[in-house]
# Entry
Amino acid sequence: MLGEGSTVQKQVVEALMKPEAYDEEAGQIELIQTHISFVFLTKNFVYKVKKAVDLGFLDFTTLEKRCLFCEKELELNRRLCRDMYLEVVPINRSNVIKIKGEGETV
# Structure
């Protein structure tokens, strides 16, 4: 089941496929999907965005839930991979959608 953010997430995915959505030199961007995430591979970093889905055993249908579970994933995985799990960053929308951008968090 898709959550409230499914339309916005389509816009986010389209935006994150463009280098200007990143603060760093993104290079060629590759998208990999899992059943719960969009994973964007850039030149130097990997960005993981949770899908707005409810699969019964997990519920990421709201922005608040996705943020909470990103924070929990960071906390859990940093214990063994501190240099790989760096931070949770906002994706914002004003005139454009951008990581750590201006405007509302989407």
Observations:
- The chain has a mean pLDDT of 92.
- The CA atoms of residues 12 and 97 lie 7 Å apart.
- Strands lie at 30-33, 37-41, 46-50, 91-93, 97-99, 104-105.
- The radius of gyration is 13 Å.
